[in-house]
Specification:
Layout: E1 5-8, E2 15-16, H1 18-36, H2 41-57, H3 63-73, H4 80-96, E3 99-100, H5 104-112, E4 116-122, H6 129-135, H7 138-141, E5 146-150, H8 161-171, E6 178-182, H9 185-194, E7 198-202, E8 220-221, H10 230-234
Parallel strand pairs: 1-4, 1-6, 4-5, 6-7, 7-8
Antiparallel strand pairs: 2-3
Helix pairs in contact: 1-4, 2-3, 3-4
Length: 241
């Protein structure tokens, strides 16, 4: 089957926000720990991470809501305006330290002459961070004929098939004629497969990270560079995950 479109995730696929997230998380954890006047940092961090993990599993992206849960866990009040300000500061920290992966622009340029290119990224319903972050990199944005913000306008976030279907509809491409490149096993790889799109799992070698240990026939690449030989990447594909 001829591939007509390459669809991408954005954060941690085309751009690297890892340092920003680490710095932003550390700063807000320290502020909440101080607010709560706790003494056991390790216990607090374990509880914080457990609550954060639950939000991630539930595809709830609001940092403010997640921090509220932390305060509630400790039976403490909080000021909504303070958390709103911290959320703005959090996303600013992430944004200002986000950089494109070095090969991203060159690979998009190389693919653009042969395939339709599109982008699907998850976003919090109440913020415009995802749109603003994409706008921050016009040298990447210009290559996409379709950009879908999943989680906005009544469209559910990935891995729900609706976001993928909406992108395909706008592209005018059948699912079996598209591939989807993303870094997250559940949200990107499983989501694309459920929507009938061939996933490609990117595990950037330049960014240290622990990926789920799963047995899969999905193509795994360690650099966007590999996509310039898309036929080669897909040559060993076996149906299914």
């Amino acid at each position: 089957m001829t591939i007509e479109a390459v669809i991408f995730d954005f954060c941690q696929t085309l751009v690297d926000s890892a340092d920003g997230f680490r710095a932003a998380e550390k700063l807000v954890q320290e502020k909440i720990f101080a607010d709560l006047a706790l003494t056991d940092w390790d216990e607090f961090l374990a509880n914080y991470r457990r609550i954060r993990q639950r939000f991630q599993e539930d595809l709830r992206f609001s940092r403010k809501d997640m921090w509220q849960e932390v305060y509630w866990y400790y039976c403490r009040d909080f000021e909504a305006k303070v958390l709103e300000r911290r959320e703005s500061e959090y996303w600013l920290q992430v944004s200002t330290t986000t950089v494109p992966f070095p090969e991203a622009e060159r690979v998009l340029q190389g693919l653009a002459g042969e395939y339709k290119l599109a982008l699907i990224t998850n976003t919090d319903t109440r913020t415009d961070f995802a749109r603003e972050q994409i706008d921050q990199f016009p040298q990447l944005k210009e290559y996409f004929s379709v950009i879908v913000l999943a989680g906005k306008g009544g469209l559910p976030p990935k891995p729900a098939p609706a976001a993928f279907a909406a992108c395909l509809d706008e592209l005018g491409v059948a699912a079996e004629r598209a591939v989807y490149v993303g870094d997250d096993w559940r949200i990107d790889v499983c989501g694309a497969a459920e929507a009938g799109i061939q996933p490609i799992w990117i595990q950037h070698q330049s960014t240290p990270r622990t990926y789920p240990d799963v047995q899969t026939s999905v193509p795994i690449i360690t650099s966007l560079e590999a996509l310039l030989d898309l036929a080669g990447v897909l040559s060993s594909v076996d149906c299914g995950l």
